[in-house]
Records
---
Amino acid sequence: MDSVTFRKHGHAIVDWIADYMDHIEDYPVLAQVEPGEIAGQLPDAPPGEPEEMETVFNDFKRIILPGMTHWQHPSFFAYFPANTSEPSILAEFLTAALGAQCMVWQTSPAATELEEVVMDWLRRMLGLPEGFIGVIQDTASTSTLCALLCARERATGFAVNKCGFQDGSTQRLTIYSSEETHSSIEKGVKIAGFGKDHLRLIPTGAEFAMIPEELERAIDADKKDGYLPCCAVATVGTTSSTAMDPLRPIGEICGRHRLWFHIDAAMAGTAAILPEMRHILDGVELADSFVFNPHKWLFTNFDCSAYFCKDSNALTSTFEILPEYLKTDVDRRVKNFRDWGIPLGRRFRALKLWFVIRSFGVRGLQQKVRTHIELAKEFESWVRKDPRFEVMAPVTINLVCFRYHPSHRTVAEEELEQINKGLMDELNRSGRMFITHTKLKGKFALRLCIGQTNTTREHIKRAWERIQASVSHF
Ligand SMILES: *Cc1c(COP(=O)(O)O)cnc(C)c1O
């Protein structure tokens, strides 16, 4: 493609994106297609001859787009958000155009140094302790895996890196998180070689947060049985209900028993940019590592996970490699981020964070996040006022867990699940909004999470009206 053609299509695609953003509410939030419907429209074999960009782009609109769920629709309330913003999109254009592979300082000094700077900006924005040093990972799953690997190596004096688990010389290690922890912890525990059987799921209280006394009891019991307790993961904002594990007591227990203390604040961490929400990170200074995802709730498109650690040597000692072909003269004076995570190759992700933080300003970001939290509170108040509904968990930030519960008769738990599942499916089939569900201590609950960049009170109000109108069908 020559630059004249590139310019033509580039402009056309930017125009299309701008129109898409203007008219996103004309699309159904949840893709209304059946499994196989998209693949069925695509040829089995790749084209032998070049095709015109116009043809490809038309097929994008005709075939691909109907199979997309529109995460940037302001009535997307499902899962947790993965929001974006115009500055982030523009920066991604540039990242793609530069096509840099930012594995070491020399492969793009600006990428490394900008990453250092914006990560320290984030550290300040969240009020994380001064010694914490940040690095961008692809996802929170990867960030947590890094933490688990560091914990493993610190606990064993780097013996697993050297000998593996295979020669039986290392003690059996145990990991702790709450029963409400994210699935990525279990995945990381498996990948890091601890084995799922050595992950202890600590009970939670009525508000779905870890009970610290239960954690200490489990650690004591494991010690007695000859295990070496290695790492505890606390969650700030669990995925089911945004429950807040109490960081300070958990951190103190980790300190007493010399466990690595990792904090998973994948979505909720963003809330700490608000001074009035800083309390959710009370005790964070006790942590060895901390992760939150700007790609969830900080207007930076997927992927961008911010991983912070107290002792970066623990990280680099765990991951360091030094093949001859990657040695440079400045190695002693710079950061080579290849040693700060799992993959060698790294995208230039700091650019979009820089664009976002500068374009919104910290105050602009705060205002968006604060609005989302206020809207969740308001939605909660509507649910509480309607006797046909019940709130299922404390609303700690931007997520409301609730369900329809006909009050004129007693309804068995199973039937409540069926009714609410039916209600959710009907709402999602309408294409006008998208919510998901979870189970809280065995009880089915609908989740409405507010975090899309352009969600306003009007969207929340319409969602509530739709929910209220739909219950008459059940
Ligand atoms: C979303 C989420 C994760 C996983 O995030 P990825 O970046 O998709 O790996 C982990 N923990 C919590 C609490 C989450 O909400």
---
Amino acid sequence: MKTIFFFLLCSDLTYAASNDTICTGGFKLINNKCWKLFTDPGNHTVAERTCTSYGGTLFMAKNAILSGFPNAGTGRCVYYSIPGSPSGQWLNGDCTRELPYVCELPPTQSDICDLNFNNNCYFKFDALPFSEAQEQCQQMCGNLVSIHSAEENRFITSIYSHLSYEFIRIGGLASSSNFIVWTDGSIMDYTNLETFGGSGNCLWLSLTTTTTVSYGAWYTRDCDSPGHFLCKRPVGALNCRGTPSPPTPPPVPLPTPTCTTGTHMAPGVLSSPNFPSSYNKQCQYTLATYGSNRIRFTFSYMSVYNYIKLYDGDSTDSPLIYSYSGSTGTYVHTYTSTGNTMFIDFYNSASSTYNGFNSTFYSIF
Ligand SMILES: *[C@@H]1O[C@H](CO)[C@@H](O)[C@H](O)[C@H]1NC(C)=O
Ligand SMILES: *[C@@H]1O[C@H](CO)[C@@H](O)[C@H](O)[C@H]1NC(C)=O
Ligand SMILES: *[C@@H]1O[C@H](CO)[C@@H](O)[C@H](O)[C@H]1NC(C)=O
């Protein structure tokens, strides 16, 4: 009886301590990291390729580094020693030397999904346009995939390593080379965007290398043509009925805006026509950003004869935030919208020599 009680208590404790944290791919949970030791010696190329096939990171055992690379610091290949004492550090060494090695994956929580990485489940789907792909993902409590680290990017390429797709869709919209909005509302804390521009603003991840694209890098392409895609949801989010779905930013087409037409997408720089020379007519500008983001707008220079008016919305019917006429020269003042649009009405009369305004605007969360 005592023995049985002891056994139950032990297994309970084990469960509580492990907190449902698991390692996938046959990796072992050691000190809150998932490690797999490969005892068959491999050189750097082989070891890296093996780890990458799991979406993992290569670690070379510290002792192996010390015995294998007496001249550490001279080789071309970069190794990371196992964190410990002294803590992990980057070392370089000989690329041809064959050694046992360790791959590391982030631990995750258990879930029914097959593709489980770093507390998220991933699901592969056949080709659809952007909006329909996002809808499909939301039906299973997820979103088109967002990517937040080089490790996650590598894990994703590893999912497709045995398929011959050229590209997959990922869940981002880029409005410039350094601004991406993810459909799941997560912040942009990592980018692998190699080229901005081309036929659209939707992000695609390349699964080939050619003269124009690199394996694993991201590109902007059209939003409408069908592309294979990947959905992502947090582990455990099996039933999302009743919870509001996150806002889906529409794939906004971006024609070049002019004085009165088109939309200026954040982030950007906006000045009156001919600036710093004067422009003696009326100009109206619509500023916008994606989804539920807001706009932070900053005037940096101001010299206006008739008026400049800034509205919190998409027209002169929206609340007026700021109105000015006169010449102030350098003028740094910042305003924030409550929604995802702002509207500017600017007018210099024909006789004016006042030279207009200059401003910058950003998207904030
Ligand atoms: C279990 O996981 C949750 C969520 O990740 C975390 O908040 C909690 O601290 C963990 N508990 C233990 C005992 O590790
Ligand atoms: C690494 O090992 C593989 C397989 O044994 C071999 O083909 C390759 O040439 C080696 N590379 C280096 C840099 O030694
Ligand atoms: C407008 O302001 C931006 C940011 O301060 C600056 O980079 C740009 O050169 C200015 N444009 C003109 C025409 O002065």
